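I would like you to help me understand the sequence and structure tokens below and explain how sequence relates to structure.
___
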Amino acid sequence: MARIVCKLGVWLLGALLLGAAMPAYANHDAVQFFRDIDVTPDSPVHDAVCFFCSVHAEGEVTGDIVVFFGSVRIRGQAQHDVVSFFGSISAADDSTIAHDTVSFFGGVRLGENASVGHDLVSMFGSVHAAPSARVGGDRVVFLGWIFSVPLIVLIIAFIVIVREFRAHRMRMAAQGYQPWM
């Protein structure tokens, strides 16, 4: 009986906290899962957040653009940061990214006269910028092969160790010893 009362109390506390939670309001923000976000010149957005999809900004984005497992294509203005995880960032000719551009495991491409206001960071990806593209801060490129080569060496070492261990166990079993595993 005490367990039932305790469980009922937990459920009631959860319902009370859920009812007391303040709703979040995000005017002019675009958040999507599995569906691309298209920003047109006549319908600007503040922040654009996309999971497993892409953002195509031909108009103005007054806040941040954050994409997980998708790409960002800018043909207008992004007034703040542009971040992509496992995807690419592309700024067309004469496009502007006012603050930082960050790409993890993806490439960055800047067209003619494209500009990044502050820093440009590419972790485990590449950067292709036109000669007339401008970056106001630092360019940091951490190439993928720097991460891949040690990982491949560790995988090969693991495979060799497992293979040798199994061969040793087979030799011991052939000599009449019982394997201990």
